Amino acid sequence: MAKILDKQELAPNIQRFVLDAPQIAAKAQPGHFLIVRHSEQGERIPLTVADFNREAGTITIVCQGVGKSTKEINRLQPGDDFLDVLGPLGTVYPIKKLGTVVCVAGGLGVAPLYPKAKALAAAGNRIITIIGAQRKELLIMTEEMEAISARVLYATDDGSVGYKGFVTGPLREILATEKVDEVLAIGPVPMMAASVQVAKEFKTPIMVSLNALMIDGTGMCGGCRVTVGGETKFCCVDGPAFNGHQVDFEGLLKRQRFYRSMEEEAEHRCRLEGGE
Ligand code: FES
Predict the structure, then answer these.
(1) Which of 63, 124, 191, 259 has the highest count of CB atoms within 10 angstroms of its CB?
(2) For ligand 1, which residues put their CB under 6 angstroms from it?
(3) Alpha helix positions (H), 137-206
(4) pLDDT band at residue 260, thresholds of 50, 70 and 90?
């Protein structure tokens, strides 16, 4: 059980929760994620550790209400409890002093990006951040990213702030004009695949953090499998961060499309049966 200490709306439908979880906070590292269940009937939802504070014994998670359980989670209030919080899960993100690192986030990808970027900055790297979203009000955690970055660029689909278009536009401009030692891209799979293509043009190393479907989070169910460097890997125990140049994005997108159609069918049935 973990009590909600604080809750803040970051954008329409996106909430940030600070949870009292001293045992998890004591072990949390950049790269880790959790599997949470808010009630007996709730689904198990994988959520990244968006921040942690060992002294206060707290962890921060960010949840976007997209399905029944995540919408229910977003209705919880300070003082309410999460029934289960399992973690920290996943591998620790490798933090090294590389030089200049371009951190690229798409949508909710800022939440998993932030702890890694913060640790990379603390290790002495110069951070250039690119944050993309559909429109201005969906840009989240901009103050936190600005505090640890030498430069922050924005990209919105409608041009309401920054570059009009995808994050790959400013990414290509930066890679064309300055020496970059590594790119870290986190967001929707097509955005990460497109960022890898740009990094390939400039022969720049790139890391990605994959948001594959997860069920047990312990390497047992196979739900999160992905092909990396020709080998089958499990995002939950081998990742979720991988060398972007080695990821089979086409296979990952195919699996996502398959699960999405199953989800839509389940949602449709749920509505027909009187659910939300
Ligand atoms: S979530 Fe089941 S194997 Fe990774």
Answers:
(1) 63
(2) 214-217, 219-224, 234-236
(3) 142-148, 168-177, 189-201
(4) low
